[in-house]
Write a structure and sequence with these properties.
Blueprint (H helix, E strand, L loop, with lengths): L11 H13 L3 H15 L12 E2 L5 E3 L4 H18 L2 H18 L22 H13 L3 H11 L1
Antiparallel strand pairs: 1-2
Helix pairs in contact: 1-2, 1-3, 2-3, 3-4, 3-5, 5-6
């Protein structure tokens, strides 16, 4: 990249949007390359999923340690779009894995409902309409009505 001599920043959200774009343009092989890179960052050698951090270096090391709900939801949407276009059950399963990991990390209890903008163990467990809309869209794509309703509870 142009910033190779500097401290480059690579955002999962930007990569997810690029993968969705490439999927809809019919360039599944390029979309798959992006998703392979994202998958490598999420799953450890034992197959355990860890939600993505806000940004990474060119070597795949976290540059920012926050776990953003919306960014991870968009990554899951990229896997879901790709799965629908390619028929890949593995990528559909990855989208579901991410959704359920987000629910485990950022569900809000109480009268407002919804999800925090960042994982509860990250700094700044705020709630944002934007991230709840992301969660609503993802849950709707994956047919997860209970999760969809949880996100909608905060957005109403």
């Amino acid at each position: 990249p142009e910033c190779a001599k500097q401290n480059c920043r690579f955002d999962p959200y930007d990569n997810a949007v690029a993968a969705i774009y490439l999927t809809y343009r019919g360039n599944l092989s390029e979309a798959a390359n992006i998703l392979i890179g994202l998958r490598r960052l999420m799953y450890d050698d034992s197959g355990r999923l860890e939600l993505l951090r806000s940004a990474y270096t060119e070597k795949g090391l976290p540059q920012e340690w926050f776990i953003d709900t919306g960014n991870n939801a968009w990554v899951a949407m990229a896997f879901a779009h790709y799965a629908a276009a390619s028929g890949s059950s593995c990528d559909a399963a990855t989208a579901h894995d991410i959704l359920h990991a987000i629910v485990g990390e950022s569900s809000c209890k109480g009268s407002l409902g919804g999800f925090t903008g960042r994982a509860q163990n990250s700094r700044g467990g705020y709630r944002a309409t934007e991230h709840n809309i992301d969660m609503f869209a993802l849950a709707r794509m994956l047919g997860e009505k209970e999760i969809m309703d949880q996100a909608a509870e905060f957005v109403r």
